[in-house]
Amino acid sequence: MTQNLIVGSSINFAPLVPYFIVALLAAAMLVLLALAWFRRANGSLWRTLACATVLLALLNPSWVEEQREMLPDVAAVVVDRSPSQAVAGRTEATSKALKTLVEKLEQYKGLEVRVVEAGAARNGDDRGTELFDAGSKALLDVPESQIAGTIFITDGQIHDQPSGLRGPVHALISGNKNRRDRRLIVKKAPAYGLVDGDLAMVLRIEDSGDEDLRKSKDSEATFKGAARISLSLDGGQPVQYDLRIGVDETIPLSLTHAGPTVVEIDVAAGPQEITMRNNRAAVVINGVRDRLKVLLVSGKPHAGERTWRNLLKADPSVDLVHFTILRPPEKQDGTPVRELSLIAFPIYELFEVRLDEFDLIIFDRYHRRGVLPPAYFVNIAEYVENGGALLAAAGPEFASPLTIHRTALNSVLPAAPTSKIFQGGYLPRLTETGRRHPVTADLKGSGSSATNPEWGRWFRHIDAEVNQGVTVMTGAEDRPLLVLDRVGEGRVAQILSDHAWLWTRGFEGGGPQAELLRRMSHWLMKEPELEEEDLRAVADRGRLTITRRSLSTVPAPITITLPNGQQRSLMLVQKGGGRATAEMTADEPGIYRIQDGKRKTLAVSGNLNSIEFARVHATSSIMDPVSKGSGGGTFWLSDTATRATGVPALRRVKPDRRASGTDWLGLVANGAYRVTGVHRIPLLPPGLALFLIAGFLGIAWWREGH
Predict the structure, then answer these.
(1) Residue 217's Cα: distance from chain center in Å?
(2) Do the domain assignments include residue 256?
(3) Whole-model pTM?
(4) Are residues 80 and 26 in the same domain?
(5) pLDDT score recorded for residue 486
(6) Residue 119: which domain range?
(7) Residues 409, 322: one domain?
(8) Residues of the chain under the 50 pLDDT cut
(9) Beta strands in 389-496 (DSSP E)
(10) Which of 189, 640, 703, 704 has most Cβ atoms within 10 angstroms of its Cβ?
(11) What is the pLDDT of residues 197-213, one digit of tens each?
């Protein structure tokens, strides 16, 4: 920028003594001269001139010529590039206004223009649009004497506090002042909830826009009527509700599984909708199971019975009902009835009335003993087919004629006994399927397919033929040891050995029996994290991580639907244990929909209910007090009735003058400069001063003598 050099002249005083001495001397002279003039003494005029010359000589006046370098005034133009500026054509209007404004500003010499773009979205940040801070920082290094002012080009939705702004502040508001917007607000939502329990969330729909229509404390405009919302869980079938506008409404919901559930809510568009971005909301609720009810049915007492009981009782989230036969009907030992202290077990209530209340039924070496009627086994089989969970741990009885496989349970048990029992030590091993199945994958000590497991041996194995399901562990002679199956809507697990308790006792180093039981139980009860065919996605800190678990090794492409509707494809990378993963950037806040052709899942990135889109209608209510307080003005770019381009006329005004009008805005012309050179000429040199003083006093003496 060209800098002008000018010459400035002025009279400067450099007193030879302090000013107060000059003032005292002047006062004394004034008294004496007043007395002389009062008495009409001859020579009073010359005495006055002599005194004035003395005072002037003490003040030491000089003529100063300064070479001045004019300093430019600095104006800041802060451009709002926040996400809310990308709706309703505001980006184009803002860019056009910026171009016009800069062209007008460049016509003024001695004016430096600083354009600052602020308010852009930041990953993981929900502070909204911060423009005032950007405006103050733009002029932070500029002296007060050079500040011309600040011009904001914005939709008016600013979320930081106006501080540190100097000079007149003007605002050019993009958007239409008469357009309104509908938004959905999640007033209250639970972070956790019981599976199959009754939950509720509080929603509010607001139609907002013109500040003059404000009718409630927390709503910029409330209108009568209702709007329809759609609510869905994990991308499932939506449920619709009609909610009143401007009123807090309570919506019931229930979780179907443990773990995170993504709740999507959409509200229909309003009559003058600006954007649908704030018509959607998403909430993640973590499902928690209530205390699990487990029925343990034990047969012949053995060393592992207590292990099952202890493992289940050690879990505080398990309510255990242990059904065991201490005195079978066929036992006759002559004990008098009056000496028996056994209490009859409520068999009918458990296996007929309350059977569906149990989350899991475990048969531990149970065989037909005439205690449970055949009809109860039919009930258990139906319980499994209708969604129940069954775990059968086999002992020698499973290979006998009294096996439970000869009951109605044979329709749900995946393995049938061959009557052969292996006796002798063997190491349980994972099958190739077992290395990918979530129940057994990555079990501690499992080793690789080429190495032996690091856990202890078992010594009994009940041979069986697998008719359905998958074998995830093998035992003696590579025969099936652990079989998992889906039956109807339920699930079944079969352990073909009763020696798992050796791991709990630490025999030969033990093994992960507790972890294996936990995984089996959770898989049987359909916990999402243990699904063998599962697709999951997590968005965190601007990164989307996708994990697919599958028993198949065939790669499948993943399709991701971005919040803006665009689609991307990714190939997953195998990570072992049946898992394959992929990552991508997730800069845009919103819901990401992921599918692999069979399964689909959702991930929420950022805050879908962000402050940036809480209110997207253009407004001048925030900038008005800031502009008026600084002497500036607020103008709407859409007001083209008086201004063809929407940008008001520009003027340079003096520091003490008004800086805005109805159709113009002003920037201060400070006239600041820096002195680059000084030439000083004494106006009353000492010799001249002495000559004048002596001359005036001589004339005064002469006048007095004549």
Answers:
(1) 26
(2) yes
(3) 0.68
(4) no
(5) 94
(6) 72-177+618-671
(7) yes
(8) 1-2, 210-223, 337, 340-341
(9) 389-393, 415-426, 429-430, 458-466, 470-474, 480-487, 490-495
(10) 189
(11) 899 999 999 887 544 44
